[in-house]
Write the structure tokens for this entry.
Amino acid sequence: MSETQYQLVFKIDVNHSYFNGNQKAPLTIIPSQSSGQSISRLNFIVKKRNGGLDLFVASPFPLADYLKTIVHKTGIEFFDFDLISEDTYFTSYTAFPVDGLGLFQYSSDDELNKIENGIIVLHPVYQGAQTGPALGRIRVCLDDLIPPLEAGRSVHFNINFNSRSIQWQYNFLNNGGLPLTGISIVSDSGVQFSGPTEVVLKNGHSAMRFDSNVLIPLRQNPEYSFDLLKGGKIILKGLPSPSPSGLFKIETDTEAIMGAAMYVYV
């Protein structure tokens, strides 16, 4: 009698360019309701982890043969999984379209998937309507798993999210009597700012505003450092970086973008 063993069917990892430290993307992958029932009934075991998922099966048979049997005898051809995040600001720092939220769909049979270092990078297809809490839907077709497993290769999927790029706005307010003339923003990054432009804030105070000339990607750990100069000398070193909690929509002549305003007292 064959001994039942737990065999790894595949694993999924999620990467996010916003998290440029050691933290994983705050995403959970769970089976859809219908696939979850099939997974349990067929002796599959889901191991959920932050930013990923591993699927095992308890079977004494070779893994590829077991999957073939499932397809031929049950008619089940795929498993669906939902991407869920409890992070309130996930959709703020992630590169979703400006004009609304939708759903990213991934499938193992997408011809635009890429293989990088033996890992299958799933191609995102954006759907314009979000009907539930899921931010993404992953479909793993069982027929796509059989050839690599028969060849003795593990199956590893990657999903890559990009961080949102936004316009940075610095508003400098006179707090100590220092005239805000002849000021500029400098950085070793090469990012330049237009301005200053005198603006009146909602609270009635006046400020000198600078706008970044390019959209800058949000990062958990800021990659750019900017200084404020006056008369060729640094008067403020290390200006603040934006938070995903304070983004707002900006209508330009050509498109809608997202921006963040920072207020600095001088």
Q: What stands out?
A: The chain is about 15% helix and 45% strand. The chain has a mean pLDDT of 92.
